[in-house]
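Q: Can I see a sequence and its folded structure?
A: Here is a first one.
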Amino acid sequence: MNDERNDRLDRLETTLGHLLRTGVMSAAACLALGLIVSMAAGSTPLATTILKVGLVILMVTPLMRVVVSLVAYARMRDWFFVGTTLLVFAMLVVAWMLKP
């Protein structure tokens, strides 16, 4: 039973690593492309949109990490970590709602 739990945790860590890497790389690509478009064509709506998409991807990446962790812990029936992850999720949502 303990080996199965360790395997699940290893898979979760691998999945989260891929998620974070993909999110950061996608955001970096959008930000780089937006910067290139902005430098080549000036401040255009297209450059601004691409830059905003990059920033949104960068901000959503940690939130997706929490959601994936929540689902994984619920499937493992690890209720302590489900509760902890829900608390982190709630704090992220509240912080996002309180932004100026």
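Q: Show me another, different protein.
A: A second, unrelated one:
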Amino acid sequence: MTEYQTQERAFGTFAVFRVISGTPTMTIASQLPRRDRWVLLLLDGRRSVAGLARLTQRSELDVASTLARFLQWGYIEPVHTVEFRTVG
């Protein structure tokens, strides 16, 4: 299976991620290339892959590839849709 197919199955354009609690975001960000740094700093647990692509003016595939690396390195985790529900 190619890397693209693996990423495509892992999450879609509406997937949402957040930085894992306790991760030294600014330290990590300072060591990343600018294009990856922006993605990491924009992760807030509410922005989708599509939203991140729009904000960074990159393709969804390019953003998904960056997120896949962050997942592999253990910097981020997916946010499940249940966590978006509000008590009303």
